[in-house]
Each structure stands twice: as structure tokens, then as C-alpha cells.
Amino acid sequence: MELRGLLSRAEGRDMPLGEIVESIPHRGHVLMIVLFSFPMSLPISPPFLGGVFGMVLTFLAFYLVIGRKPWMPHYLHHKPVSYRVLEKTIEKLSWAMRYLEILLKPRLLFMTKDERLWRMHGAFLLFMSVILALPIPMPAPFTNSVAALPIFLTSLGMLERDGRMIVVGYFSTLLCIGYYLALILLGREAFEYVWHFFGW
Fold it and tell me: Could you give the CA distance from residue 57 to residue 149 in angstroms, rounded to a whole number?
């Protein structure tokens, strides 16, 4: 997997976000979106990374839409990602991919071959990345996960040319919408009650 080369390049040191993005030119846009959305899509995701990774994903998705090499502002380009976070993310993603590759295969290829649809997918990723990057006024469990999951599934489908997975990614947005609506209507206390009830 191309991402494993990052660990060798890092040599145990923290890596700036810009260096991570620039180190994978082949399929870089989509592969980087898979990398940065994966830790956010896990049930227990680091809350402090949601805003930063959300901004990175926003820039990557924007340049995916316009079909140009990603560029990031100085602040994000030089922001370091700790080697421990990078190593754990790549190890978990590699483990997950071993199982996901059983499900993933090229199908509904028109969804990845058509340039207009490709840009539409990019626009969808851009929209969801902005949602992920927005600060949530009342923090609650899974706020990062439900926004990042559609990004991860859709970009994974684009990477593996699996149109069915892209469709799943689109439909997983319903989970995000439902969660945020419930959060607005029920409030954070209801989610915290469920969280503690199950001992999480």
C-alpha cells in the first residue's frame, strides 16, 4: 500500500501535513482523502483532529473538483502530524483494507469514468468536508464520525472504482442528517445518557 511508504519516509519524526500530501502524487487527491477521513469515521475518533482534518479534506476535495494539484495555506501546510498518530492511522487503515477489499471491486464503472460524475463526487466530498470542519456548538459522541463516514466510503469507492460503494457513501449521508436532527431536537444530554447507559 502506498501509504506505508510514508512511515519509512517519516523515520519516526512528525510530518507536516503538506509533506504528507505531496509525498503521494499517484491518485494523491483521493488517496489522501481516504487517509484523512478514515480516523474521523471511526466510532471513537480524536475530537481535536476534526477541525484540522476537516480543513485539510476541504482543500483536497476542492482541488479534486477543479482537477488541480492540492495547495494548502501556510498554516495547514506546516502543521505537524505526530508520527504516532500517522503510524496508528496507517496501521488501522491497512488492517481495514484487508477486509474491505473483499467487498470492493470495480463495478458501475460509469460512476468513476465520467468526468462530470467524478467532479460531482468531488463536490459532495467538499460539502461533507465543510460540515466536518465546522465547530459543533454542543459537542456530543459521534459528531465527527457521522460526517466523516460518507467522505470515507465515497472516496474509497472512487479509489477502487467501485460505483456501488460510492452509492453507499451517498446514502450514508442520511445517517449524518438524522443524527444532527436528533441532536438538535433531543439535545446533547440524551446522547450522553445513552453513552453512559451502555458504559461507553
Answer: 13
